[in-house]
Amino acid sequence: MKQIYLDHAATSPMHPAVLDSMLPVMREDFGNPSSIHGFGRKTRHLVDEARHVAANSIGAKETEIIFTSGGTEADNLAIIGVARANKSRGNHIITTQIEHHAVLHTCEQLEKEGFEVTYLPVDEHGQIKLADLKDALTDKTILVTIMYGNNEVGTVQPIKGIGEIVKEHQAYFHTDAVQAFGLLPINVKEQGIDFLSMSSHKINGPKGVGFLYARAGVSFSTLTYGGEQERKRRAGTENVAGIVGLKTAIELSLEQAKEKVALYKNFKETMLQIWQEEDVTFQINSGTEETLPHVLNVYFPGTNVESLLVNMDLAGIAVSSGSACTAGSIDPSHVLVAMFGKDSDKTASSIRFSFGLGNTLEDITHAAKETAKVVKRLTRKS
């Protein structure tokens, strides 16, 4: 039976070129980048090259890039770091109801420490209203953290508009760009972004590495204590092989971005057309515009998510109900609840398809037809 992986928003396979770039480092370049001898200088050069590529990818300076263990650490460093460093100026944070749990759970922890958090609502397409953001800002607001593109439904937020609003305020603007990076154009200066998080394993790089962009001059505290790595902002010996892999993944993602966006849009159109031809009842759980090209979240009335996922897996199709970080949870998606309400059938009958490296039009056609078979079988039983 053919196995088709359509869960790239959870994690993506490593590109062969990324692995090729990492292997020599893992075999030979073992020096500590903080060492002053030749072994250390060589790995320091590798890290510096990667920092240059990372900075250029978002229009930043090299000194504004902090390598982390991934998106979750980057989110934590930005949110907790800003909150603790700026509590003398205020204790209010603004985020949204549909953030990744790396942001939501971090904000919940800060609430326990005495900070106040406003969770902005979203409309049925998953977008915030800029007017709501303006209304939520107070003289105590020190941070606005709003994701670039949603990992479950693919909705893209009005990032530039958010940046323009926050720029007129004392607050800093952080965005979790884990899903958008490598597919959508990002320029932190033009968009008014003060902090940005990304993760390597979402762009066909290795797991366990990512970076945080922190604009020069921003005030935030470190979360780890030890050596003086990353300009004293993130202690711990750098993951050189991972960072080299991240560099290659960034280069590939930028080179192939336009091609991938066109391909994934074609994948979406193909799936939707096949379901229409197969007379399958479905609804897309986001707007048709302003969405990530690789994410498609679909509601199939008369089904339930557990049966959908099990039957799709038995058919050789790997999809998900949303964030991999809540896999196995019986709770409905917090994103769909925010969009449609807790009593909506959509929260219990929707699955996410996400495309990436290795997927072909043949795969998508086969997956769409298998999905139609599963949905028809489940709706007959109900």
Automatic annotation (TrEMBL):
<feature type="domain" description="Aminotransferase class V">
    <location>
        <begin position="4"/>
        <end position="365"/>
    </location>
</feature>
<dbReference type="InterPro" id="IPR015422">
    <property type="entry name" value="PyrdxlP-dep_Trfase_small"/>
</dbReference>
<dbReference type="InterPro" id="IPR000192">
    <property type="entry name" value="Aminotrans_V_dom"/>
</dbReference>
<protein>
    <recommendedName>
        <fullName>cysteine desulfurase</fullName>
        <ecNumber>2.8.1.7</ecNumber>
    </recommendedName>
</protein>
<dbReference type="InterPro" id="IPR015421">
    <property type="entry name" value="PyrdxlP-dep_Trfase_major"/>
</dbReference>
<keyword id="KW-0408">Iron</keyword>
<keyword id="KW-0411">Iron-sulfur</keyword>
<dbReference type="InterPro" id="IPR020578">
    <property type="entry name" value="Aminotrans_V_PyrdxlP_BS"/>
</dbReference>
<comment type="similarity">
    <text>Belongs to the class-V pyridoxal-phosphate-dependent aminotransferase family. NifS/IscS subfamily.</text>
</comment>
<keyword id="KW-0479">Metal-binding</keyword>
<dbReference type="InterPro" id="IPR016454">
    <property type="entry name" value="Cysteine_dSase"/>
</dbReference>
<dbReference type="Pfam" id="PF00266">
    <property type="entry name" value="Aminotran_5"/>
</dbReference>
<keyword id="KW-0663">Pyridoxal phosphate</keyword>
<dbReference type="InterPro" id="IPR015424">
    <property type="entry name" value="PyrdxlP-dep_Trfase"/>
</dbReference>
<keyword id="KW-0808">Transferase</keyword>
